[in-house]
Fold:
Amino acid sequence: MAYDHIPLDDEFKALAAFDWGADAAPLAKLDAAVIACHGDAALTADLERRFGEIVTGKASRAAKEYACRKLSMIGTAASVPVLAPRLADPAESHMARFALERIPVPAAGDAIRNALGSVSGDLAIGMISSLANRRDAASVKPLAALLGGDAKLAAAAAVALGRIATPDAAAALAAAKPQAGPVADAVIDARLACADAFLAAGDREAASTIYRSVAATVGDAPKTHRSRAVRVAAQSGLLACLDDTVAP
Amino acid sequence: MRDKLPPTRRRFLAASLQASAAVVAAPYVITSKALGDATTPPASDRIVMGGIGMGNMGSGDQRAFLARPDVQYVAVCDVRKKWRDDAKGRVDEKQGSRDCAAYVDFRELLGRDDIDAVHIATPDHWHSLMTIAACRAGKDIYLQKPETLTLREGPLMIQAARRYGRVVSGGSQRVLEDYREIVDPCWAGELGRITSVDIDPGPSSMACYLPAVATPSDIDWELWLGPAPWEPYNPGRCDGNFGTGGNSWRSYIDYSGGSLTDWGAHNFGGTIFAAGLLDLQPTKAVWHRAAADGQASAYATLVYPNGVEVHCNRPKQLRPADTAATISHERGITIRGDGNAATPRAVPAYRGSGGIYGDFIECVKTRQRPFRDLEVAINTMTAPHMLGLVRRLERSLEWDRAAQRFVNDEEANRLLDRARREPWTL
Structure:
């Protein structure tokens, strides 16, 4: 089925008026068009533009969600200005991020990172989550800045730094000195994630430094399932660093 | 003066192994009924458990663990009051007390340090998040299949399990129990080298456009949705369990891979086990378009690095004739070998007693890897997830296992995962 043989005007009109519970049959043709346009930049751009118009128009939340799902598949840098303003809207933030997170251009990461500075609470955690999924190395500095603040944001930022796992991320985590609690736990988890990543990349020295530090951190902790698991992680990591039969 | 001896690799390994063994080997020791009795093992041999997601499969898993004398069951968690209350009631009745705790939020259950292990049987969109959280909390996990909703989740779950030394068992009891009639001949070498398989996986999940209805008071809808996109409450989104034609959450792409991954976990599990593909992931998923004359529908072929081809939904008329080296299973699986001599191998078995549940508990005690170890489960689930993507994209894909990415297909790589709704993050 070639996309250019499908007018789709009626389908986009139906989408503009769509809401949950309405006839979804027209959407099936849009689904097919998104698949069929693969490899055709002009047709993809046309679809992208029309889905963008749904996002910026007065369509229902259901219709905008649908359009964001499609932009997550075919969106380009052209969709970033369409989606970025939605990141601060509690009703649209997630689906805008749903699309932006998947768009493989730096501008999409920039938009999410910029939004992190202007939203708060759960919306900010959402940005952090997407930056982690994108392994956005440019976000290390703003994420590190969150480690000393609000506990929920700090814990999410720590996890994200562990996913990014660059030397800068590891250094930021090492510098964090949270009090015992969820943030401290998240920092330890993230440091272990960094160490595992360094070990996998063959940097045994950097990995072992972290494992030793974590082992020392939990050395005097009360014996709980959590502290046992962290000790296991640190000790097994150290073993792997010393064991030259373990392939990095 | 041993303390002043310089550290050596051998000395460090010995000390660390002792320390690790001490840390890893013993599950948390409960204090009540510490000495046990004629029917109950002493506390040091009992595993303290809780359950998360107490619906159909969760209640079945709970009953299996409750029936074990070596399990002390202390807590349940569900976002739906009825299932939570029913689950608590089963524990209290069994244990003759009212002590079983009931939680709406799984984080409270995972925060209890007296719990050694949890079973998880929520809808699929929660599996990775809860599993990783449980690993970080130092719990061992029995995780219902399908273990993952997206391809990216699997490696993150394995990393967490390995990092913290956790025992994580996938929850497909059928792999070993339903497919022996094809597993045994394959492992005995009766078919020679396995060359190809035909399997008929079910449909993929679909988008959900159900209308909003008033949210009942007995469900925490925000927590049911969790990391999934916000959608209005409708019982058709969250009720049911096995239906995949639009009458349960398993039908819908935000919460499940559909029958493809639900029954696929069993059927691919049995197929991959029988064909000796447990450690492998497909390198290619080839999409065969439907014949222009309408005589043959579209299908896909998963190609494994050892050359085994797993044809999915291949039309009957395109399949080769059976030979003496062909074996079939009633669930739509046909396995073909080259018919040459092959060395028999022993079929892996559950550890302990009591099927897959006993296998998990035995591994919690002994720190061995269970029959459906998480890594095996993730390898298995890679097959239906890849099949789902080639069905959706209607084109062939090449998979780089080391990078966990598709080769030269950026659009396919976009579908490796999806953004989680705030405040949920992996």
Summary: The CA atoms of residues 142 and 265 of chain B lie 15 Å apart. Chain B touches chain A through 52 residues (CB under 8 Å). The longest strand of chain B covers residues 71-77. The mean pLDDT of chain B is 91.
